[in-house]
Design a protein that fits this description.
The chain is α+β, with helices and mostly antiparallel strands. The protein has two domains: about 5-170, Aminopeptidase (3-Layer(aba) Sandwich); about 175-215. The chain is about 50% helix and about 20% strand. The longest helix has about 45 residues, at about 175-215. The chain is elongated and about 90 Å long. Bound molecules: coenzyme A (COA). Coenzyme A binds near residues 26, 82, 92, 116 and 124. The site of coenzyme A has 18 residues, from strand 4, helix 3 and helix 4.
Length: about 220
């Protein structure tokens, strides 16, 4: 299998219908709610270079898109889909890594989030550094949550005033990640210094003993 993952553009408009159908049919099979997407919306995302497509030659294999909220304070990755013929070989992982790296380059200050009921996505997001959070940590733009209106669970979301639902929110916060990286780096440095000091101390303590042994000879 030679799958190519790229940022989608006008060339990929022809896949929009199949993408929507695959997302919808997969949700029915899973018996879960899903926000419905229209081919026009998928094409708009391609137009904005905010969509990622995976192709096996000319055959559609996978997809995901990006949306910006609150002037770019938040970016969400949505509509992740791998065609049933291409599942369980690590393609979702590759698409998510691609879209994650692309987003980090394009919007380095943005918090990246997703909402999902799927274990596969939770696993992939965790590997990328996302943390599970309550909806209070995600965008409060009502337009984002309105995107859930075609989901079968929308009445639950509405009754909880967009504060919770059946999906788990997962967030990658670049600032929190940097702080964590800095702490890890500092801890590694501290460990090195302590080890070095221990060695000096050991050498110092051994010196008199060595002299005593020399005296005996
Ligand atoms: C969910 C989906 C994207 C996974 O795609 P995939 O290419 O088969 O996933 P990968 O092969 O990259 O697997 C990634 C990880 O998830 C695990 N995984 C895959 N499918 C899984 C499933 N149905 N249940 C639990 N774990 C699953 C894999 O074992 C792997 O874990 P590992 O790193 O511990 O080995 C695909 O099944 C799909 O399109 N489903 C329908 C749409 C959907 O659910 N989208 C997500 C909406 S948020």
């Amino acid at each position: 299998m030679n799958i190519n993952i790229v940022v989608a553009d006008e060339k990929h408009y022809k896949y929009a219908e199949e993408i929507c159908e695959t997302i919808y049919n997969s949700a029915i099979v899973r018996g879960t709610g899903i926000a419905k997407r229209t081919p026009e919306y998928i094409q708009k995302k391609m137009d904005q270079r905010q969509a990622i497509i995976a192709l096996d030659g000319d055959t559609f294999a996978g997809f995901c898109y990006i949306e910006k909220w609150q002037n770019g304070e938040f970016v969400v990755h949505s509509g992740l889909i791998v065609h049933p013929d291409y599942r369980s070989v690590g393609l979702a992982k590759k698409i998510k890594r691609f879209v994650f790296n692309y987003t980090r380059k394009k919007f380095p200050e943005s918090k990246i989030f997703g909402i999902t009921t799927g274990l596969a996505v939770m696993k992939i997001n965790s590997e990328l550094g996302y943390k599970p959070v309550t909806f209070s940590e995600l965008t409060d733009d009502p337009e984002f949550w309105n995107g859930c209106r075609t989901c079968t669970n929308f009445n639950i979301l509405q009754s909880k005033e967009n504060k919770m639902c059946l999906c788990t929110g997962m967030l990658f916060d670049p600032k929190a990640q940097k702080e964590q990286d800095d702490t890890t780096e500092k801890n590694a440095f501290d460990k090195k210094v302590i080890l070095h000091l221990k060695k000096i101390k050991q050498a110092f303590l051994l010196k008199p003993a060595k002299k005593e042994i020399e005296k005996l000879h």
